[in-house]
Known about the structure:
Blueprint: E1 26-30, E2 33-36, E3 41-44, H1 47-50, H2 59-71, H3 83-95, E4 100-106, H4 109-126, E5 133-137, H5 146-150, E6 167-170, H6 182-197, E7 202-207, E8 210-211, E9 217-218, H7 223-234, E10 237-241, E11 265-268, E12 280-285, H8 286-290, H9 311-326, H10 329-345, E13 353-358, E14 363-367, H11 370-383, E15 385-386, E16 388-390, E17 393-396, H12 404-426
Parallel strand pairs: 3-15, 5-6, 5-7, 7-10, 10-11
Antiparallel strand pairs: 1-2, 2-3, 4-12, 8-9, 11-12, 13-14, 14-17, 16-17
Helix pairs in contact: 2-9, 3-9, 6-7, 10-12, 11-12
Amino acid sequence: MQNSTSTSSLWRPWTPITKQVNSLRIVxxxxxxxxxxxxxxxxxxxxxxxxASCGHGHPRLIEAATRQLQQLxxxxxxVSSHDPAExxxxxxxxxxxxxxxxxxxxxxxxxxxxxxxRIALQYWRNIGEDRNRVITFTAGYHGSxxxxxxxxxxxxxVSEWARPFPVDHVDMPMSxxxxxxxxxxxxxxxxxxxxxxxxxxxxxxxxEPLLGLGGCVVLPAxxxxxxxxxxxxxxxxxxxxxxxxxxxRTGRMFGFEHDGITPDIVTMSKGISGGYIPLAATTVTxxxxxxxxxxxxxxxxxxxxxxxxxxxxxxxxxxxxxVMADEKLVENAATQGTALLEGLGELASCPLxxxxxxxxxxxxxxxxxxxxxxxIAAGAAQSGVMTRHERGVVRIAPPLTLTAEDTAEMLxxxxxxxxxxxAAASR
Length: 427
């Protein structure tokens, strides 16, 4: 029976039930813009669900999906392989550094995290060592499935259930603004060193190159390189979560490339298929995969899903790689991201704003309160720009197809929203 206060039977995740009545309904998307049911067009400052990297309605991606649907939709990955998946994993091996050659395909970033953790913990058993402790950021986010939730200390994702393995969380030693300094980097690496050195040998450290839902925190330059060295010193696996940052979002193909390192395991989703078809990937080094010949039950990975490595999704992902190369979207993310960060940085003198930070086409405006962030986001929407706000931070992450004209328009409209919010707060 439908509740009389509701206009829909759809139960949307992460949204208070009381806020789901008469909410915004998107009915059309084109390029970098979306239209609601009332006919209003917006610049998409959140890339759909932070995954529409190639923009909306890209003809080459639609063509790739249509062509694959007509030839082969999918087939049991335990029984056989198929060309789209084989091609995609080979291409990932080419663009990922070092010995990151072995990829398993999934449907979501959460599943990629589950696979990464299972692989990391099983790896130590395979080589005869008893390691199961994982270290991560308190403010990190790695998904909403059971194992993934164990990693997060964020209030809205923290798990209420018993952990199947020990997890040690590292808090930010100072504000997001201060942590980008040399002193911040020293303090942060000292905390990870303490976490690794305190307790039994750690199985893995898992972090994002940029903390997405944890406040869009930009980590200090060189931190990941220092973390790689720390993990090497203690024989600990380094897992990089590139679900949000990967495929050009930060102005490099992968976020860890800013520090020139190679992780042992990397997780990917969102931009891998441009948001057109659900897809995710977990890539590991050849040595890690080889250890599974000694896995005691199947001599392989005991993890997978019915539609993991879906042929249509893999075909679209291959087209995404072509589009990114042909349209130079990684380079464009760096160029437009710099312009967006510099332009929004001019708003830092506003009394409501405490920090403006970003990397590539992900920029955050931190405010003095959640109310201020909500007011700025609402004002931006009224002006025609979609953003997201969480716990006092307004996040802007538009498609990588953003043009210089789009950037200028976005800056003007967000600037107007900030001015209006500041004027209202001063009354």
